[in-house]
Specification:
Layout lengths: L8 H15 L7 H7 L2 E6 L5 E8 L2 E7 L4 H17 L6 E3 L2 E7 L8 H14 L2 H10 L7 H11 L3 H10 L12
Parallel strand pairs: 1-3
Antiparallel strand pairs: 2-3, 2-5, 4-5
Helix pairs in contact: 1-4, 3-4, 6-7
Length: 183
């Protein structure tokens, strides 16, 4: 597994695109298979409700723990997020707990104040909702960003929550009065 070779949101997206080229980008992405192919194991774990996932490094092996009680779409995003940390952030100083190196994904992860969290979120969004697949979908389907049923259909297609999809569409520059996608 190659780690720590880049930095920044743009590079996080590029790293996700590299995985698409390596493993394919048919949506919904089998994020757990991607993680396994990159040498990580994924485990559903009982956790506090405010913790979505964690990355544990032990003796050179990486494990992604995901909150077993969260919705499957949330778990998929958490796996992608933690995979992003594993591939992008070898330099992160992590909290040590019982000889494990741990990086938790929690409510603070989505605030946009920690560079590593922002990068892991950008990686996860590009991995699960590839820019080109979003553009293809929007060429084939009409989407009113205010119509929850249409958003739900699109979110289901990508295996993500409506919230994650809405953030991704906004991040791509989707104009709710048209279908302009930029990156």
């Amino acid at each position: 597994m190659e780690r720590g070779r880049r930095g920044g949101v743009t590079d996080a997206r590029l790293r996700a695109r590299e995985l698409h080229q390596k493993y394919g980008s048919s949506v919904p992405i089998d994020v757990e298979a991607f993680a396994k192919k990159e040498g990580l194991s994924v485990h559903l774990v009982p956790m506090e409700p405010n913790i979505s996932g964690m990355l544990v490094d032990r003796n050179g092996s990486s494990i992604i723990g995901v909150n077993a009680s969260h919705h499957p779409n949330r778990r998929r995003f958490s796996i992608a997020h933690e995979l992003g940390h594993a591939l992008l952030h070898d330099d992160v100083s992590r909290q040590f707990v019982d000889s494990y190196t741990v990086a938790f994904r929690n409510a603070a992860s989505s605030l946009g104040i920690d560079r590593h969290e922002v990068e892991a979120n950008a990686f996860a969004a590009e991995l699960l909702m590839p820019r080109n697949e979003i553009a293809n979908y929007l060429q084939e389907h009409t989407l009113d960003a205010h119509d929850e049923r249409q958003l739900d259909r699109m979110a289901s297609r990508f295996g993500v929550s409506i919230q994650a999809l809405s953030i991704r569409l906004a991040g791509l520059g989707y104009d709710t009065t048209g279908s302009d996608i930029t990156d």
